[in-house]
Amino acid sequence: MQTTKPQPMPCPAYRFTFGPQVPLEDAHAVLFFAIDAMGLVFDPDQLGHGVRYRVDQSAGAIDIDGSTDAGPALVCAFKALLAWHFGDGVFTAEKLAAAAVAAQN
Q1: pLDDT at 11 exceeding the cut of 80
Q2: Are 38 and 51 in contact (CB under 8 A)?
Q3: 89 CB neighbour count, 10 Å cutoff
Q4: What is the pTM of this model?
Q5: Which of 45, 60, 73, 90 falls between 20 and 30 A from 19, CA-CA?
Q6: Residues contacting 67, CB < 8 A, separation 6+
């Protein structure tokens, strides 16, 4: 999968971290599926500009921007699809505090 240069993440942001049994590339693929599914709820133009995320290879994590209209819904969809695909207990999801987001930017 292609990765992009990390961009500053606004607040609120949500961090998904994965256990060793979940390859980050597979979680990233599930995120793409969640984004596609969001096209059923949001106008494609709005969705294209309203979804921001970054893959943090070193931390084994994916951060999702929750400050857009589509962000919180994407977080919910991603959580549900991860649990369906990998099962419960193999990932964590947390809302990052503003200080944590600033430190990562």
Answers
A1: no
A2: yes
A3: 9
A4: 0.80
A5: 73
A6: 10, 11, 12, 13
Unique residue bearing structure tokens 């070193």: 58
What beta strand segments (E) does the chain contain? Answer: 13-18, 53-56, 61-65, 91-96
- Tens-digit pLDDT profile for residues 31-46: 999 988 888 877 776 6
Q: Tokens at residue 82, please?
A: 């991860």
Q: How many residues does the chain have?
A: 105
Task: Give the angle 59-104-35 at the CA atoms, nearest 5°.
Answer: 70
Q: pLDDT-derived band of residue 100, with 50, 70 and 90 as boundaries? A: low
CB-CB neighbours of 82 under 10 Å: 23
